[in-house]
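Incident review: delayed structure delivery

Summary: a single-chain prediction request sat in the queue longer than the usual turnaround. Root cause was a stuck worker, restarted by the on-call engineer. No data loss occurred. The affected request and its eventual output are reproduced below so the record is complete for anyone auditing the incident later.

Affected input:
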Amino acid sequence: MAREIAPWRPFREIERMRRDLDRLWDSFFERRPARVEEAAEWLPTLDVSETKDDYVVKAELPGIDPKDIDISLIHDLLTIKGEKKQEKEEKEENYHLIERSYGSFTRSVRLPGQVQSDKINATFKNGVLKVTLPKTEEAKKKEIKIKVE
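Output delivered after worker restart:
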């Protein structure tokens, strides 16, 4: 009976063990929901895109009052700060589970180029903050044609 000799790949075994342990931990924590005190800090999700003339940053901020949002730009670093406030507590209700997160947050995005800070525009609609940052002329990409011979 002929047997092939296979090279030992220790990292493959380590990766398999890591996956097994991850599955074990995941199944353990699925049995009970995390309490608010144990939950990680809430951070809004961001979309950062670029057009020919602008950088556009969109942030999902459901349940946040626009007056509780602060936007600042220092050099090429855009910072969005805010606070998601908890609703007034009802004394007649007995909560058995609270999964909504509350508290302050800060998100910063480094922009790839310079912007015209005096022309920045921010809008808030349906829980989505949209910040439009017009590029400076130097930051706009110049198109270079390649000659094919």
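Verification: The CA atoms of residues 15 and 107 lie 33 Å apart.
Action items: add queue-age alerting; document worker restart procedure.
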